[in-house]
Design goal:
Elements: E1 2-5, H1 11-24, E2 28-31, E3 37-39, H2 42-53, H3 61-64, H4 72-81, H5 89-96, E4 98-100, E5 114-115, E6 124-126, H6 127-134
Parallel strand pairs: 1-2, 1-5, 2-4
Antiparallel strand pairs: 3-6
Helix pairs in contact: 1-4
Amino acid sequence: MIVIDGTDTPLGRLASYAAKELLKGESVVIVNAENIVISGDPDFVYKRYKHRIDLVTHRNPQVNSPKYPRTVTGIVKRTVRGMLPRWRKRGREALKRLEVWRGIPKEYQDIEPIKLNTRLPRFYIRLGDLAKRLGGW
């Protein structure tokens, strides 16, 4: 089992590392998901996610429109899911081994988490702040 600390880590790099470990057969737990950052101008990142959430079809908007997550854990899981071959058995099983948590739960406090060595981007928004603006907090 691999426990990854998401504090000050860019979302894409964290998701690609987690996807590789999941495909190797490891169980991955991501903690402190609210402190993961998305690089870019905060207003632009918010507008991009909000536009995606507001997409609807004219046929039957409640049933046929794409469903995008607003919560911190949902956004991280969806990002990792996009990096897995989820239509194959291997990808489906890998996604089942992923856990995402806000904060650190009691069962993982005694395990030393992995901190990815990445620089903080110049402009960024934290996932917790984005979720608050999207209404998913």
